[in-house]
Amino acid sequence: MGKRISNYLNRKKSHAATLAFFRIAFGSLMFFSVIRFWSKGWIESLYIKPNFHFKYFGFEWVEDFGSYTYILFILCLISSLFVTIGFKYRISIISFFILFTYVELIDKTTYLNHYYLTSCISFIMCFLPAGGFFSVDNLIRGSKIEEVPSWAVDSLKFFICIVYFYAGIAKINSDWLLDAQPLSIWLKSKYDLPIIGQTLLQQKSIHYLASWFGMIYDVCIPFLLLYSRTKYIAFFFVIIFHVLTKVFFPAIGMFPYIMIFGTVIFFDSKIHIIILNRIERIVKKLSVLLNIKSIELVKKNYLNSIHYPRFAPLFLSIFLLIQVIIPFRYALYPGELFWNEQGYRFSWRVMLIEKRGDTRFKVKDSISGKFFYVRNENFLTPFQIKQMSFQPDFILEYAHYLGEHFEEKGLKNIQVFTDSFVALNGRSSQRFINPNVDLLTKKESFLNKDWILPLNDEINGL
């Protein structure tokens, strides 16, 4: 076994064009993602405008920079461009990972699976020799890397397989398969779509078909992509699936494009070489039009050494093992995962729940018994209020923020209680948080939040 692992790590090679193509695709998507994020005004509304930011446990030290937050995005834009063209690749990808992840840590209100996906992919790429082929670094050095270790390509493949497979097994639950929830709620709301909005999308049978197809697709697609005889058919389904996802759920952002271009890494390197050659021809034509000296992106002399950290294979193995384990941490907590969300994030549970909440906070003087209700809109943005209303860690953090705020205003003997009601996947609303618990006596931790009331129903599944 040890000899096989050694041979795999040290001898088995893949063509460097595969990593180069992935670098260009990923960098380009990130470049346009930052532009898109900026153009929609989300930097202002999500990171600058709020007076209070919800923090990830352990990352309370992460702060925004006010109007200077734009500088983070400018640097992120530049680093994504440099990743794309392969200029100072190692520095560029590490910079992008740090900048992008830092921005996402400013406020967990913005958490989305594809933001986490982006951080994970960029982290993996920090350890890969993806800048040694078809890059500006080649032009500067006058040489390139023809081959890379197979583990470099396989680590990205394995990670993409984890994302798909875990998203699939998470859909094996009674809400998704037996009740077609929450797809039934979402598809019915798309009545404004031409032709199908008021007809097909209102049919329960279509909701069940979409739910079952989504589960089967996510579970099976990794294996179909890995098998040489089916990977191109599988890629056809990847395109169909993610295009439909984008049409029905436009708010999902760049995720469909990331997955479509990401799965191209499963193709034979010959395909990547063809694509890169076409890109080179386009670049040459542009250089002629712009009266720039002809650019040769692919040199004929090669480097014998492959530059990557020696500990990279071990480090990536540990990282991927963590990715395999983390999604199952929910088993450490009692109760319904979709309800209490303890262990829900960072587990590739994509589009599984539709929750609506109404959460009000009561600030009480423990001595006199006098109390008043807080107007959440005085402290939070509408988007923060929506996310806070049904997520228990948000509710706890906000309660402590209110306690600190009113203590600074001179109030004493403060207690903070909540009247919280939440509806999950089409169920009737029910009380969410124990109204008799002073939330200031509770602290955020990895321990079970026993002040969350249980769901009056059962969801069977993995």
Write structural notes for this entry:
This protein has 462 residues and is an alpha+beta fold. It folds into 2 domains: 11-170 and 268-328, no CATH class; 357-462, no CATH class. The chain has helices at 2-10, 16-39, 42-48, 69-85, 89-106, 113-125, 136-141, 150-170, 174-178, 183-188, 204-226, 231-248, 255-262, 269-289, 312-325, 337-340, 382-388, 392-408, and strands at 13-15, 147-149, 355-365, 371-373, 414-424, 430-431. A hairpin with a 5-residue loop joins β5 and β6. α2 (16-39) runs antiparallel to α4, α8 (150-170) runs antiparallel to α11 and α12 (231-248) runs antiparallel to α13.
| CA radius of gyration | 25 Å
Number of strands: 6
State the helical fraction: 40-55%
Mean pLDDT score: 91
Write the SSE topology.
Elements: H1 2-10, E1 13-15, H2 16-39, H3 42-48, H4 69-85, H5 89-106, H6 113-125, H7 136-141, E2 147-149, H8 150-170, H9 174-178, H10 183-188, H11 204-226, H12 231-248, H13 255-262, H14 269-289, H15 312-325, H16 337-340, E3 355-365, E4 371-373, H17 382-388, H18 392-408, E5 414-424, E6 430-431
Antiparallel strand pairs: 1-2, 3-4, 3-5, 5-6
Helix pairs in contact: 2-4, 2-13, 2-14, 4-5, 5-6, 6-8, 8-11, 8-15, 11-12, 12-13
